[in-house]
Amino acid sequence: PRRIEPLERLGEILVVLALTGELVAMFGNVVLRALFNSSLLWSLEVSEIALVTMTFVGGAIAYPRDQHMSLQALVQQLPLRWRPAIAALACWQVFAMSLVGGWLGWQMMLSRWNQVTPYLGLHELWFAGPMIFGMALLAYFSAGKAFHGSVRVGVATGLALVVVVAALVALWSAFGPQLRGYALPATFFIFTVQCLIGVPIGF
Q1: What would the pLDDT profile of 151-180 be if each residue is shown by its tens digit?
Q2: Are 158 and 146 in contact (CB under 8 A)?
Q3: Where are the beta strands (DSSP E) in 73-171?
Q4: Looking at the predicted structure, is the pLDDT value of residue 203 above 70?
Q5: What whole-number distance in Å separates Cα of residue 135 and Cα of residue 129?
Q6: Is 148 exposed, middle or buried (0-12, 13-18, 19+ CB in 10 A)?
């Protein structure tokens, strides 16, 4: 059986705690409404934290277990010698997207740094933290998975993705205003290619 890493185990514990907290808050709220015509006003805040934790941390620990949905129809038709490179390239794209997601979570946290919840007085860190941690876990797992088959293939595909991204950034920097009309078609094209090479689309 596959060895579970300590970070993966930590993610499991956080997801279990989040699910338990949400069940207790929701069940307690239902009981109070039914018996005393009252409610736990803070239950919504607990549920939001639990949902963020289960979504991002749970999604991250599902990745190394291959529990994400992906389209493999095209990949299965390719020659066997191509498949390790395609798999590594998909992992590096997940890595890149997790970095972007973590950065967005960080920016969201900074923009709401002085805000607290009305009932429990919880800081924004309680909501953005699970997203940032989940994206960091996903980046760690996807980078490790990229080297799973071959270190040489993992390095080559990672460098190839860096070159492509750098070229796109340079192209946008040079011709940004003229390329805005192509942004939506280009995004759709990239998304389609990602789906076809097996980048996960859900879990």
Answers
A1: 999 999 999 999 999 998 898 888 877 777
A2: yes
A3: none
A4: no
A5: 10
A6: middle
> Are residues 28 and 43 in contact, defined by beta-carbon separation less than 8 angstroms?
yes
Which tokens is 94 given? Answer: 């997940």
Which pair of structure tokens corresponds to residue 154?
């993992």
pTM for the whole thing? 0.88
Q: What angle do CA 98, 69, 79 make, to 5 degrees?
A: 95
- Measured distance CA(85)–CA(150) in Å, rounded: 9
Structure tokens at 90: 């998909």
Contact of 98 with 139, CB cutoff 8 Å: yes
Query: Distance (Å, rounded) from C-alpha 161 to C-alpha 197?
Result: 14
CB atoms closer than 10 angstroms to residue 77: 7
Q: Under 8 Å CB-to-CB from 189, ≥6 apart: which residues?
A: none
The pLDDT tens digits for 33-83 are 888 888 888 888 999 999 999 999 999 999 998 888 888 888 999 999 999
